[in-house]
Amino acid sequence: MGYVKRKIFPNLMAEMTRTGISQEVLAEKIGISRVSLSYKMNGKTDFTLREMLETADTLGFNRLEIGYLFKKSN
């Protein structure tokens, strides 16, 4: 059976697609490398609170909505 890539943060991925923001652009806006962002989005490392807040700001969400953006898939 082949490896299936799991979406750890499906809401974050959906909002990035909806707003047209790539991983490269988001990483630059929150001050990390694209590789670091990829690791975080795949659950290999954790987002810091600062990164989560800046991501919400970048995607046009208020800070109370970070729970929605960073809800993990089952």
Summary keywords:
single chain; 434 Repressor (Amino-terminal Domain); globular; mainly alpha
Set out the fold topology:
Layout: H1 10-19, H2 23-30, H3 34-41, H4 49-58, H5 66-69
Description:
The chain has 74 residues and is an all-alpha fold. The protein has a single domain (10-69), classed as lambda repressor-like DNA-binding domains (434 Repressor (Amino-terminal Domain)). It has five helices and no strands. Helix 2 (23-30) packs across helix 3. The protein is globular and about 25 Å long. The mean pLDDT is 90.
As a whole number of angstroms, the C-alpha radius of gyration is 12 Å
CATH topology (level 3) name? 434 Repressor (Amino-terminal Domain)
Q: Determine the number of helices (DSSP H or I, runs of at least 4 residues).
A: 5
Sequence stretches where pLDDT stays below 50 over 5 or more residues: none
The fourth-level CATH homologous superfamily is lambda repressor-like DNA-binding domains
Shape: globular
Structural class based on helices, strands and sheet pairing: mainly alpha
**DSSP helix fraction:** 40-55%
Give me the CATH architecture, please: Orthogonal Bundle
Q: Please indicate the percent range of residues in DSSP E strands (runs of 2 or more).
A: under 5%
Distance between the termini: 20 Å
If you average the pLDDT, what whole number results?
90
Number of strands: 0
* Name of the top-level CATH class: Mainly Alpha
**How many discrete domains?**
1
Give the biggest sheet.
none
